[in-house]
Specification:
Layout: H1 2-10, E1 33-41, E2 44-53, E3 58-66, E4 69-78, E5 82-89, E6 95-101, E7 104-111
Antiparallel strand pairs: 1-2, 2-5, 3-4, 3-6, 6-7
């Protein structure tokens, strides 16, 4: 009886192993942190950007797209946190701004309404059965 009780109580011991051992502190890489908005002002699109964290000096590349066609590309050298305004020609239709830092896209902003093709009439989900 006592043997069974000791065996059951031995299974209730605290047996936690830490996920990351002490002293193995892995540092996270420094990354660019940026927020922004894109709005229309007359015949221009104005991107108001806030650079929250800039790990090192470098080029922020802004690529202006109409659909899948790149219309314009600008490169701005940044060294520190702050605010930045970029202007682009605004045409009709859907436009996108993609910001690239060290060959990695970091922010995408869009303006306008994307063109979405209509649902085909013969597709299975195009008509709903009428309920009795």
């Amino acid at each position: 009886m006592w043997g069974l009780l000791l065996l059951l109580l031995a299974g209730c011991r605290y047996t936690f192993w830490p996920v990351v051992p002490a002293g193995a502190g892995a540092a996270f890489p420094e990354r660019l942190s940026i927020t922004g908005e894109l709005r229309a002002e007359g015949d221009e699109a104005v991107a108001s950007l806030k650079l929250v964290r800039v790990p090192r000096a470098g080029y922020l590349v802004a690529r202006w797209y109409a659909g899948n066609r790149m219309l314009l590309s600008k490169a701005v050298f940044i060294e520190q946190s702050g605010n930045l305004k970029l202007k682009f020609p605004l045409g009709k239709g859907y436009r996108q701004l993609v910001l690239v830092w060290e060959r990695q896209p970091v922010l995408q902003l869009s303006i306008g309404v994307p063109r979405v093709p209509p649902r085909p009439t013969g597709s299975p989900g195009s008509t709903r059965p009428q309920e009795p």
